[in-house]
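Q: I'm writing up a methods section and want to include an example of the input and output format. Could you take the sequence below and give the corresponding predicted structure tokens, formatted cleanly so I can copy it straight into the document?
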Amino acid sequence: MQKLRTTVVAAGLALLPVLAAAPAGAASLNIPGLIDQGIDTVVHTAAGGIGDTVASLGQYGAAHAYLTGDPASRYIVVLGARLNPDGLLPGVLNARLDAAAAIARLHPQNKVIVSGGPTQPLPYTEAQAMLVGLTLRGVNPANIILENDSYSTVDNARNTTQILSGAGADGAVLVTSASHIDRALATFQSASGRFHYVPVSVPGW
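A: Here is the clean output for your methods example:
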């Protein structure tokens, strides 16, 4: 219970700078819906997080093996998806965050990059929403790196590889939807052939 309480507090703190910028687009925000979505995420994680984490060992074994090899230089990259107009996270993005969190909870030494820009007229980016979503799922926000400027997969690849290059990374686990994984992997490899990517394909579009 103490760990759950700490997670909720950490998520609230992560959300403060986002809400501070709210006046410009606050009229479109579904605040009650955002609160409900956050509570649902915490409840789901508290009830099934351990099971989901254990299950990920079988589902994403290659990703776990790769991240264990050299935590300091191997990252987890989660690609964003367009937020709903009212600010809520769509199901496809929640699925990506569920998978990424299940992996990240077993690898607290590996950094997580969340990639997605201001693709809706909202007071926060996809990446900022993903930061909160991962924190609610038990991922340490201090380990999460924001890539806030992408409007497309090409942007995701270019901006994220710049972060990886600056960090001296070897590569990353790449988390996105099943319908998107082949294109995303090809785009990331085209952006920079120096990095090794382990794909994690999540059900959904």
